[in-house]
Amino acid sequence: MPITANTLYRDSFNFFRNQVASILLLALLTAFISVLLNQAFSPDIEQLKILSATESDLTSTAGMGIQEIIQQMTPEQQIVLLKVSAAATFSALVGNMLLVGGMLTLIRLVSEGQRTSALRAIGISAPLLPRLLLLLFICTLLIQLGLTLFIVPGVILAISFSLAPVISVADGKGVFASLKLSCKLAFANARVIVPAMMLWLAAKLLILFMVSHLSVLTPNVASVVLTALSNLVSALLLIYLFRLYMLLRV
């Protein structure tokens, strides 16, 4: 029987509905960790004032590209900007690692008939986390490079690497073996992977659009809420991809 997107969507939502409490806790916990790490490693208020001190001068750079804007900054501003970017990247990477590791472990245990929780899933996934961290770092780096050079290569790389975390957790394969197999399977099953990835990207963009409508919340609370919503979208995609890979292995 051929694998259809409708079947995968139905199975994914059924799993999500049955495990909604654990998935919500996992999304909130990893979001809180991401925001906490970002706050811990971000520059202090005094350093951030360096960026805002010449904000009025940067209004004239509206038509410039990102590289030109950075070149207009002073060395002190560039260093602070680098620290802000590094803190955001590191916190997001750690949060994604915990989310992916915990979520895929949760799916695997539940599929095997075991009762588990979000905290237990994260604990069991601990031995996998270093490999997942390296895998997600490589994927993020290559995808960001692709998006920076031109949007299409970044999207293609995102689709190509979509199954890599699932393969790494489900089969215990190494980083590069997972990436290689993911590329092979993703292109062979593009008809069921591409629509899911496009919906995932659209949902992520919609969540980013919601930032301007959460002004009533404090910045930290808004960050946790938005990150948790983003994690829920990613959790649904992970369920979908895990189910697809299980069917491909049969």
From TrEMBL:
Domain of life of the source: Bacteria
Intracellular or extracellular location(s): Cell inner membrane; Cell membrane
Transmembrane helix keyword on record: yes
Membrane-topology descriptor: Multi-pass membrane protein
Matches recorded under InterPro entries: UPF0259 (IPR009627)
Keywords: Cell membrane, Membrane, Transmembrane, Transmembrane helix
Transmembrane segments: 20-41, 84-107, 119-143, 149-171, 192-215, 221-242
Similarity remark: Belongs to the UPF0259 family.
HAMAP family attached to this UniProt entry: UPF0259
Protein name: UPF0259 membrane protein ACFFJ3_04905
